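Backbone geometry tokens:
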Amino acid sequence: MFNDDLMKRATREGRKWMADQNADLLIWGGIDSTGRNLELHFTGTASSPGERPGRFTPLNVLTLPVDFYTDWVPLVRAVVLAATDPRSFSQGRILRSALPAIAASAKAMGLDPSAGMEPMERASILFCFGNACAVCAQLEGDRGWYQTAVEAWRAAVDLIPNDQGPLLGQLYQQLGLTLQIIAERSNDSDCLEDAADAYRRALMHISRRKQAVDWGLMKYRLGCVLYKIDMAIGDDNALREAIHACQASRQIFNKYTHPIRWSEISNSLAQILQVYGDNVRSVPILEYSVKCCVASLQVRTPDTAPLQWASIQNTLGSALFLLAKHTGEWEYMRQSSEAFRMALMVYKDHGVSRMAIITERNLSRAEKQIETANEKRVADPVWAQSFNITEDDGGYDWQAFLNGATTDFDEHIEEVA
């Protein structure tokens, strides 16, 4: 078994060889220490994105008996094809036409490897076959392949001992990504819970120091799934955990080294904060949501990323609307309508009709509140104007909560205004 550093070196060297030969995939390995099996590793042309289910990494090993017979051939072909990242449209088309049928013929062997093999050897086959199924799902758009991938990976998890942390981390990561896709396509809240559990387990095994990017991605993914769980069933504890997870992710993807990802996470965090802040009637949390939006707008611009910019403006408009609701300050409502109006202009210009309808509805609500406030200003002072104000915050120290959201990670909340 190769250690992590050796595998990284082998991958770097392998990619140099592939570049020299203009190759698509390098298959390498040898006979294991028992002399009974071949261990095959796969090196692609580039690192696959960390959020793509079915990606092969240096940890993936396909274990085959040295005297494997023809029944193994479909499995080998399926894994080899799935490990290949197509570099052109024509390659992608060939992969789409070939892989699903080959993977289907390998299903019996892929889901039930030889009982005569050791647990880790069987797990390696299940892991690789699960990857092939996930790639098939992306090629065909068939959710059934994702279900088969989950079946294979769960069987692999049961065979791998806890001292194989990096491998378990990668397996749970794949499970979480795939379960999240299934949950979002089926609106299944139980599946969302399973995805969150898989991400939590992945984080137990992924090293923040050695695998910082994967760790940060899993934290962000966990935060997004927990937010969706709250949207589905209503769970303030899920929102609270989601805030902590996104804050932790922002420590990895900061605005200097990963500005685009940082902006995306900041926007998502703002959405979570405004829902939680509204639920618990906390002005400081809503103010922090606004700050996150303003920070995101420092990276996204209407010229370079118009739709992303409009999304942040929409989030900002919602946060300001809620601030007006909980403070009674009509100026927040005016700023809210302005943010919605700018987002609406972009959505209309780019023909994004669904988001334009939602934003127009939000703008209409804000403008109606402004009209009501203007009518009241004749007779009432600003402090008496009502936007459904609720003043009871339950006596909880929300500023301490915000500070606590990052103190677990040895960093105070950054100033983003």
About this structure: Strands lie at 25-31, 37-44, 62-65. The chain has three domains: 1-160, 164-250, 253-417. The first helix runs from residue 4 to 21.
